[in-house]
Write a structure and sequence with these properties.
By secondary structure, the chain is mostly beta strands. Helix content is about 0%, strand content about 50%. The strands form two sheets. Strands 2, 4, 5, 6, 9, 10 and 11 form a seven-stranded mixed sheet that branches. A four-stranded antiparallel sheet has the order 1-3-8-7, with no helix packed on it.
């Protein structure tokens, strides 16, 4: 299982970023996928999740600003982040749910004021 995340960077508050996670080594379309983040000094937390059928879940703090989506043909999951806030700063991780969850490497998102 490989999960390669990219798309992080430095952005001013109010800006946007799009994270991409490229998956390989498993049947992507049959797994729930998600994005977690970890801010400095804090625990890793679930940001958004998308089911195999496209149903989505969002953490309250990102509702209306972030959109998770997936492309099963390309084995990719995305996180579109708009109206970013300084509190969105952290390392963002792609995650495959299941009996044996799998983490990708993180991508740093830094939102400056």
């Amino acid at each position: 299982v490989q999960l390669q995340a990219c798309g992080g960077g430095l952005v001013q508050a109010g800006g946007s970023l799009r994270l991409t996670c490229a998956a390989s080594g498993f049947t992507f379309s049959t797994y729930v996928m998600g994005w977690y983040r970890q801010a400095p000094g804090k625990q890793r937390e679930l940001v958004a999740r998308i089911s195999t059928g496209g149903a989505t879940y969002y953490q309250d703090s990102v509702k209306g600003r972030f959109t998770i989506s997936r492309d099963n043909a390309k084995n990719m999951v995305f996180l579109q982040m708009n109206r970013l806030k300084t509190e969105d700063t952290g390392v963002y991780y792609c995650y495959r749910f299941g009996a044996s969850g799998s983490w990708g490497q993180g991508t740093q998102v830094t939102v400056s004021s």
